[in-house]
């Protein structure tokens, strides 16, 4: 029960952190985290699109140092084939910086 509450809080916090970064092209409609399974589910509405895009991070690894935390996306899928292919090419297997406060919640 504690893990679910923590994941819900982290989801809201991560959504607030990420939304301004993608506001020029999308709005986050749903952000769900399962930290035990290392899984993220994200639903965004791309500007000008009527149907939302679902993205699922099937796995991630945290790394880096205490001062410079990172996340590596190990598996990712999407509801649109071209987006899934782009994510596999440009996101999967790459490491991205994450604020230490957010990494501590993941």
Gap between N and C termini, in Å? 16 Å
How can the largest sheet be summarized?
5 strands, antiparallel
Overall pLDDT score? 92
Structural class of the secondary structure composition? alpha+beta
Count every helix, treating DSSP H or I runs of 4 or more residues as helices: 3
Q: Low-confidence runs (pLDDT<50, min 5 residues)?
A: none
Count every beta strand, where a strand is a DSSP E run of 2 or more residues.
5
Helix-strand pattern? HEEEEHEH
- Taken from the alpha-carbon principal axes, the silhouette is globular
- The amount of helix comes to 25-40%
Q: Write out the strand line-up for the largest beta sheet, numbering strands in chain order.
A: 1-2-3-4-5
Count of all domains: 1
| Estimated share of beta-strand residues | 35-45%
Calculate Rg over CA atoms: 14 Å
Put the structure in a nutshell.
The chain is an alpha+beta fold and about 110 residues long.
Structure in words:
The mean pLDDT is 92. The two termini are 16 Å apart. The chain has a five-stranded antiparallel beta sheet. It has one domain (2-105). It is α+β, with helices and mostly antiparallel strands. It has helices at residues 2-22, 81-90, 100-105, and strands spanning 26-34, 39-46, 53-64, 69-78, 95-97. The longest helix is centred in the N-terminal third of the chain and has 21 residues, at 2-22.
Topology of this protein?
Layout: H1 2-22, E1 26-34, E2 39-46, E3 53-64, E4 69-78, H2 81-90, E5 95-97, H3 100-105
Antiparallel strand pairs: 1-2, 2-3, 3-4, 4-5
